[in-house]
Amino acid sequence: MHPKARIHADPAAPEPDRMDCLPDSLVLLILNKLEDVHSLGRCSAVSRRFNELVPLVHDVYVKIDRVVAVDGDPDDALNLSSPKPRHIFSHLFKLMLFTIAKPFHGMRGPGGAGGRPLFPRLAQHSPVQVLRSFSHVRNLRVELPSGDVGTEEGVLLKWRARYGSTLQSCVILGGTLVDRNGGHELPATEDGGSMPESFYTNGGLKLRVVWTISSLIAASTRHYLLRSIIKEHPTLRSLVLADADGQGTLCMGTEQLAEFRENRLSASACSNRTQVPACSMKLKYAPYLELPGGLGLQGATLVVIKPSGDGAGGCHAGRKEAEAFVSGAFDGPFRFAAKALMKRRTYLLEMNGF
C-alpha cells in the first residue's frame, strides 16, 4: 500500500506582490489621495515603480515647517527682502526662505547608494526645489506656518484674495473681539446699518484701514513669491496658498493662472511683492453679531475690494460672481458673519495703488 502523497509549499517560491497586480492608474489615484509631499517622498523610496509614479501625481500639498534667514537667489525660493522694519508689517519684509525641514533628507531612489536622489539632498528644502520633482502637478496647496499680519489676542482678522497677474478681488472679515461665551450682545440700536459717530472718533475706522492695508500687503507678497512655481509648472490648474492660522488665503484658478502667465507682473518698487492696484472698497459694519455655536463678534467688519475701473463690477453677472466669492470665502460661523454683514449698509472707499 502506497503512502498518501503530501503537498508542501516550496519555501523558495516568493509570494506575489499584491501591489504589482494594481494598474498604474489605480496606484496614481491612491497617491493623489495622499497629496502630502512628505508622505509622497516616503512612498517614492518603497520601490522602483513608486519612484517612477510619484513624480506623476496631480494633487500635491506642501506644508512649510519653519522660516529661516538665508542669503540666496530669490528666484530659487520663496523670499522676502527689506531692511529691518519697526511696524506691523515687520515679518513681511525680512529676508526669508520658507523651508520644509528634511522630509527627504538622505532619501534615494531604489537604485541604492549610487542611485540619483528623487528629491534634493539639502538641509532645508524650499517648495520650489521640492516641487521640481513633480512634473504633472494640477492642484497645489501650500500652507505657511503662520499668518502674516500680527493682531492682538481676541481680535479676528481673516482674508481671502483671488489673483491673476494682479489682484482681482479680496474680501476681509474682521472683529475687535471674538466672544466665545456668547450672550453678551451689545444694546441694539435702530441705526438701519449706519456706523455710530464714535466709529470715526475712537480710531475704529483707522484700525479697519490698517487691517485692509496689512491684508493687501500680505496677499501681494504671497502672489509675488509664487512666480517661480507657476513658471515651472505649466500643468497647474488651481493653486492655494494659505497659512496654518487660517488667517489668509490666496487662490488662483485655471483662468487666473493663464492670465498670470500671459501678462508681466508689476512689482512694487519698495519690496518684493506685487504692486497693489488702485481699488474701490465696500465696507460694511455691525457693532455686534451673534454667531452660531455660541460665538459673538464685536466690531464686525467686512471689506470687499475690487480694482478700480473693473468693468464686471457693474453688471448683474459681475455682482452675482462677487457675492458668491464673498459668501464662500470663509467657513463655519465666519461664513454666517460675512452673509449677515452683506445685508448691512455699504460705505464706499477709494484707495490708490501702492
From TrEMBL:
InterPro entries attached to this UniProt entry: AUF1-like, F-box-like_dom_sf, F-box_dom
Residues covered by the F-box domain: 16-64
Pfam families, A to Z: F-box-like
Descriptive protein name: Predicted protein
Gene this chain is encoded by: LOC123440397
